[in-house]
Amino acid sequence: MVRPVLIFPAGMPRSLAYLERALADGQRVIGSSSLGHDPARVRYPEWAHLPYITADDFDEALRRVISEFDIGGIFTPNPVVWDYLNRCIAQAFPGVALVNTSPVVSEVAPYHKALQFGATVLADPLPVATDGPVKSSLSALEIASLFRHAESIPGMCDHEKIRALCELFRHAPTGDVVEIGSWWGKSAFVLARLATCYGVGNLLCVDPWSNQHLLQKDEKGLVDRVPVNADEALTHTFTHNSLSMFFRLRDGDRAMTEPPLSIPRTGHWRGCCIVCCL
Ligand SMILES: C[S@@+](CC[C@H](N)C(=O)[O-])C[C@H]1O[C@@H](n2cnc3c(N)ncnc32)[C@H](O)[C@@H]1O
After folding, report:
1. Residue from 182, 239, 241 to probe ligand 1 pocket by mutation (most atoms less than 8 Å from CB)
2. What is the spatial distance between Cα 184 and Cα 156, in angstroms, rounded to a whole number?
3. Atom of ligand 1 lying closest to residue 181 CA
4. Distance in angstroms (rounded) separating the CA atoms of residues 234 and 232
5. Planar angle of CA 261, 193, 277, nearest 5 degrees
6. What does R_g of the chain's alpha carbons equal in angstroms?
7. How far apart are CA 2 and CA 22, in angstroms?
8. At what angle do helices 140-151 and 103-123 cross, to 10 degrees?
9. Closest CA to ligand 1's atom 13
10. Which residues, other chains included, contact 101 with Cβ-Cβ below 8 Å and sequence gap of 6+?
């Protein structure tokens, strides 16, 4: 049987995320912190108090907890605790391993990946057959921030599509941008951001956002049995992403659930216009 993991400090968001995964996997975990009253305590099945890492008796107290719960691993998203334990765990706490990699490295890794993406887009642009005017490209940092935020939105717009769109918008004529099929809003975010950066125009998102229209009637029913909820996609995820810091719909931007010719209802919201056919 896998030995228990100590999570310290237990109230940090990454600790709580680890706790959820561990409990789902049936891993025994012990929460721990140095606070007199830690609001996270109620979320843990077992708990142990430890002094602050700067305290003289920290090592001794940790050894007691390790022995009491037969701890085999320690998860810590705190960079100072991680660095300290990483340096001394083998000698000071033999038989116990750090279960996560450096929090500093893992926190910044997605930003490095995004910067790398920005550099690749600039170094290897999609060849576009057009003889019209071409706008100068966004900087690597601007493309990186676009990519980084798009990655936080669930959806089907993959890296190559983002890369292609980054180049296509440099050649796009001025005018409204229409997206057919927005779902959670991943590609909508990319389109809205690029349309803003390149001064192309407003974005119009068209989607029925209805479970009935999601039915593909595929032969084996593999697609249709995936549990998705169109109402949730619209009211929670799309709206949430639309309101997020980087995806401000501007006056004139629209989301609609049917083609423009049959618009029975419009709703105004935060300086933009959502058009719904319900
Ligand atoms: C694959 S998802 C879109 C993914 C999205 N573009 C992204 O980046 O993640 C397809 C979407 O098309 C929508 N859809 C299906 N039939 C449609 C139609 N006739 N007109 C417009 N949208 C439609 C569905 O409701 C669904 O939200």
Report:
1. 182
2. 9
3. 12
4. 5
5. 25
6. 25
7. 12
8. 120
9. 181
10. none
What domains are there in the chain, each with its CATH number? 5-100 (3.40.50.20), 106-275 (no CATH)
Name 135's Cβ contacts closer than 8 Å, sequence gap at least 6. Answer: 169, 170, 171, 198
Ligand 1 pocket, Cβ-based, cut-off 6 angstroms: 155-157, 180-184, 186-187, 206-209, 213-214
Contact 86, 119 (CB under 8 A): no
Contact 76, 62 (CB under 8 A): no
Pocket perturbation via mutation, ligand 1, pick of 149, 207, 226, 277 by most ligand atoms within 8 A of CB: 207
pTM confidence score: 0.79
pLDDT above 90 (res 132): no
44 membership: H or E segment, kind and range: none
- Contact, 149 vs 246, CB < 8 A? yes
| Residue of the CA atom closest to atom 12 of ligand 1 | 181
Pocket perturbation via mutation, ligand 1, pick of 151, 194, 211, 213 by most ligand atoms within 8 A of CB: 213
- Of 10-14, 55-59, 73-77, 266-270, the range with the lowest mean pLDDT is 266-270
| Nearest residue by C-alpha to atom 5 in ligand 1 | 182
Number of H helices, E strands in the chain: 10, 10
The pLDDT of residue 237: 77
Torsion, Cα of 160, 165, 167, 168 (10° steps)? 130
pLDDT value of position 45:
97
For residue range 145-203, what is the model confidence (pLDDT) as tens digits? Answer: 999 999 999 899 999 999 999 999 999 999 989 888 888 889 999 999 999 999 998 88
Pair of tokens at residue 9: 């400090």
**The token pair that represents 274 in the structure block:** 């959502």
